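Exam review. A common question shows you a sequence with its structure tokens and asks you to describe the fold in words. Practice with the pair below. Do the first one on your own.
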Amino acid sequence: MTPQKSTIILIGMPGAGKSTVGIILAKQLSKDFVDTDVLIQVSQGRVLQDIVDNDGYLVLREIEELVLLGLACDNCIISTGGSAVYSDTAMNHLKTSGICVFLDVDIETLRARVNDYEVRGLAKRPDQTFAELFEERLILYRKYADVTVNCIGVTQEEVCRSIIQGIQEQTGF
């Protein structure tokens, strides 16, 4: 991997495995791990759902954008919140130092993995169904992805191997 692109940015829906895979990948590649949802919660002193409930989903997206724009980390794995892709400015900022990897999971798998979408702190319109959110975000994930990894029916270790292979193919290293 080229020095200027030493960071791996994981994007995808909640439940795609960004945080879990990110931790494993960070250990395998000897990189720091950053979970931007945790950064948001620490910066606000409250959980994501509390922000959505009290301030609205657009405020959560604004906070997320500010947190992402404030990130300056090299040689790390970044697990973004599922709504990071709504900010073109933030995504372009992240991509200046990293390769963006979309963890692609179908909606059925996501529903099987996560049962608490109503209290998970999703930055979505109140009237929006999970299926509508999935379709809306899928377009954005594909737009920003340098590498797409199919995560259906594979282990976390296999996902990590696919990420490394995809990045090697993308960068030539």
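Now try the second one, then compare your answer with the model answer below.
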Amino acid sequence: MHQPIKVASHGVIDYGLFAAAVAGPRLLGLTGAARVLPTAFGATQGLLNAITDQPLAARKVVPFRKHGQLETVAVPAFAAAVALSGAWRGVRAGAFLSTMLASLAAVYVLTDWDAAGDERPAE
């Protein structure tokens, strides 16, 4: 399967998902777990992205492939937390969290995790 999302694109998308995860629950008026879980996940994801070896990082500490390995665990853990907490209950919460999870899964599957270094800027 051809994975079209490369390192730099993944970084941009992750920052967008971070913004959506943090701002979305507030904008939609979500409360409780429907607000806390995506905000906490988004903040963690944003921090990870900021320290991952990718062109838009604040510090390049975490190798890109390691970022992918962490997402292999984090995305299913987020889905489980949403399901077990009941955060998905309610029309707005369900739609928002379903969209977040689908987006995270799609980005993960479409990312070329072996592309590390393909788009690295000259340092």
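Model answer, second protein: The mean pLDDT is 93. The chain has four helices and no strands. Full marks require stating both points clearly.
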